[in-house]
Design brief:
The protein is of the alpha+beta class and about 675 residues long. It has 3 domains: about 190 residues, Histidine kinase-like ATPase, C-terminal domain (Heat Shock Protein 90, 2-Layer Sandwich), CATH 3.30.565; about 150 residues, Ribosomal Protein S5, domain 2 (2-Layer Sandwich), CATH 3.30.230; about 190 residues, MutL, C-terminal domain, dimerisation subdomain (formyl-coa transferase, domain 3). The chain is about 25% helix and about 25% strand. The strands form 9 sheets. An 8-stranded mixed sheet has the order 5-4-3-6-2-1-7-8, with helices on one face. A 5-stranded mixed sheet has the order 9-10-15-12-13, with helices on both faces. Strands 25-26-27-31 form a 4-stranded antiparallel sheet. The longest helix is centred in the N-terminal third of the chain and has 18 residues. The chain starts with 7 loop residues before the first helix and ends in a 5-residue tail after the last helix. About 35% of the residues are buried.
């Protein structure tokens, strides 16, 4: 095939693919242009996920009539004039590709007016070709209307997601943009329904409340730290405010929403030891960095940047996060229903109702305990930057950092348990906002599928190790023949049976018991629902709402009762019975995270996986003392399991040694 020079139309369509990947890319570029134009109010309206209609209206400076034609040319911009300007660029846009790229793959209508002009201008184009220009009455500012995105590139349009999913991407983008510019009033309208509205009152906490709800906003630490060429302001969540993915990690550099592996690792290293592995914290941080030490001209979408000194940025972020967290006193509250919360208690004493229903055993005796919390922290270890990553007990910067431990911190907890609990109001008055309009209740045909055959009991095959001895410990006939010797390390129970010695992991065993109990009820369709009061209120984004609605029948089969509560909030009034230590809110959010990441699965696959996860989280943990009576009841229930030797995730519930093996260890037998 001969080498040919592509025509300009083809070049524009190819180039547009680098900048405009989906409707959210259009919204991002147009809103960033509005911000650069000095707007303090921006409204975004979409229909059908932005595929058929996007309108972005701002009250910025507008575009002069004689500059409109050139504005739609590739590499036309008012942000920079030479390569030297890139060194100190502070605007969100500067490449001059956005309008040309959008125009090349859509039908555009532009209405704009500058403050000095008597009339506005209306400009129409289709597929990058100008249709008309005319004078029109218009307010100061600019309105872009983008119709039929990718109408002339059907291959690109075919790879878009559903309208609901694309709208979810735009909703997430608008949340990021509103958090990045608390001085600007943003409004997002999807199919004629208001989804987001911020006041632009400069109060970042108000926007966090508007986006994430009252529960998260009530559990934040303020961050304010500065060093040479860099400053951090904003909020981070208390350690228990976390998710199973990085969706909660929000940070902005010079007003730009950015993703940086350097900052991600520094934040997570600062939280190390405060949250469980594979959980990620909540942050909304604003970085003000000298433009001369960063390079934003890395990717056409400007979502990535480079630092001239990775180590310096990493250390500063890590130290800021760690210094904010250390010294805070987090007191655990255990409610009667077993839900565990954490709360900063300035008086260091909290009255709570104590429960020990780990195995569903009723207790009539109540105890009152007082535990002291003192901070006796030595100097915190500081990361040392080296050429290769190796995260041990201290954080490291991959290809940049190596960290070694220098000290430990000790703390004792002061906790007072009594029969009553007082909950303080979560939000101050200034953060209250109006409830969003009711969320649309339309559901897709594929949302709920009920295949009864999937829920029939599976045939269980007993593994061979169950028959390794003539008489099995976990056989109901031998219930009276074993002897519990005691507990080791507050985790493992020592059991003597005939000529064998067993060690039982109380967490794995309890996890297996809870799993078998729940799965049996699901197979027999005898799920019990425990009503809770007050109900748990969940604030979900659009993607989470879609996943919840698609899997509502799965949640119902698991024993949950969930109702729409207005706007993006959902009310949980019922939870599966038999999980006394379940953190209902966190468990539901973890379930949604898992469903979002796992893709298409059968209902039975989802149930099996999620019940296993619920059982693990609800089971009694290691290093927790339980009574002999509780251990006996646990053994009794474990005996009834189909495969009592492994928890749902495959870990052993028991290990065994014969008398012969023990005597060989002591050299009694040679």
């Amino acid at each position: 095939m001969e080498i040919q020079l592509l025509d300009q139309n083809t070049i524009n369509k190819i180039a547009a693919g680098e900048v405009i990947e989906r409707p959210s890319s259009v919204v991002k570029e147009l809103v960033e242009n509005a911000i650069d134009a000095g707007a303090n109010a921006v409204t975004v309206e979409i229909k059908e996920g932005g595929i058929s209609f996007i309108r972005v209206t701002d009250n910025g400076s507008g575009i002069n009539k004689d500059e409109i034609d050139i504005a739609f040319k590739r590499h036309a911009t008012s942000k920079i004039k030479s390569i030297e300007d890139l060194i100190t660029v502070s605007s969100l846009g500067f490449r001059g590709e956005a309008l040309a790229s959008i125009a090349a793959v859509s039908q555009i209508e532009l209405i704009t007016k500058t403050q000095k002009s008597l009339t506005g201008t209306r400009y129409l184009s289709e597929g990058g070709k100008k249709i008309s220009v005319e004078d029109i009455g218009a307010p100061d500012g600019t309105t872009f209307i983008v119709r039929n995105l990718f109408f002339n590139t059907p291959v690109r349009r075919k790879f878009l997601k559903s309208a609901t999913t694309e709208a979810g991407y735009i909703n997430s983008l608008m949340q990021y943009l509103s958090l990045s510019h608390p001085d600007i009033s943003f409004r997002f309208i999807n199919n004629n329904q208001n989804k987001l509205h911020t006041s632009g009152n400069m109060k970042l906490k108000d926007i966090i409340y508007n986006v994430y709800g009252r529960d998260i906003t009530a559990n934040l630490y303020e961050v304010n730290s500065a060093a040479e060429n860099i400053r951090i302001e904003g909020y981070i969540g208390k350690p228990f405010v976390n998710r199973g993915n990085r969706v909660y990690e929000n940070y902005y550099i010079n007003g730009r929403y950015i993703k940086s592996s350097i900052i991600n690792r520094a934040i997570e290293a600062g939280y190390k030891g405060f949250i469980m592995p594979h959980n990620y914290p909540f942050t909304v941080l604003h970085f003000t960095i000298n433009p001369e030490i960063i390079d934003v001209n890395v990717h056409p979408t400007k979502m990535e940047l480079r630092f001239s000194n990775n180590e310096y940025v990493y250390n500063f972020v890590y130290d800021t996060i760690l210094s904010t967290l250390k010294g805070k006193e987090l007191v655990a509250e255990v409610e009667a229903d077993g839900q565990i919360m954490q709360k900063l208690n300035k008086e260091k004493e909290l009255e709570i109702k104590e429960t020990k229903a780990a195995f569903g055993i009723d207790r009539t005796e109540e105890t009152k305990k007082t535990v002291q919390l003192k901070q006796e922290s030595k100097s915190e270890p500081k990361p040392e930057l080296k050429s290769e990553v190796k995260v041990e007990s201290k954080p490291e910067l991959k290809s940049e950092v190596k960290v070694e431990p220098e000290s430990e911190s000790k703390s004792e907890l002061k906790l007072e348990s009594t029969r009553t609990i007082e909950l303080q109001k979560a939000m101050p008055d200034e953060t209250k906002t109006r409830l969003p309009e009711p969320f649309e209740t339309r559901r897709s045909e594929a949302m709920v599928k009920d295949d009864e055959q999937k829920y029939q009991a599976e045939v269980k095959v007993k593994p061979e190790q169950l028959s390794m001895f003539k008489d099995k410990l976990l056989d109901e006939d031998n219930k009276d023949n074993y002897k519990i010797i005691g507990q080791l390390f507050d985790t493992y129970w020592l059991i003597e049976f005939e000529d064998r010695f067993y060690m039982m992991d109380q967490h794995a065993a309890h996890e297996k018991v809870l799993y078998e109990r729940m799965m049996k009820k699901i197979r027999e369709k005898h799920i019990d629902t425990q009503m809770i009061m007050p109900p748990v209120i969940l604030t979900l984004n659009m993607n989470e709402e879609e996943v919840l609605k698609q899997n509502m029948q799965v949640f119902t089969k698991m024993g949950y009762e969930i109702e729409e509560f207005g706007g993006s909030e959902y009310k949980v009034t019922g939870i599966p019975a038999g999980f006394p230590k379940l953190d209902y809110r966190q468990m539901l959010m973890d379930l949604l995270d898992g469903l979002m990441s796992e893709g298409r699965m059968t209902d039975m696959d989802i149930l099996t996986e999620k019940v296993a996860s619920m059982s693990c989280k609800a089971a009694i943990k290691g290093n927790n003392k339980i009574s002999y009576k509780e251990a006996e009841e646990l053994m009794d229930e474990l005996m009834k399991a189909d495969n009592p030797y492994n928890c749902p995730h495959g870990r052993p519930t028991l290990i065994v040694m014969s008398k012969y093996d023990i005597e060989r260890k002591f050299k009694r037998i040679v």
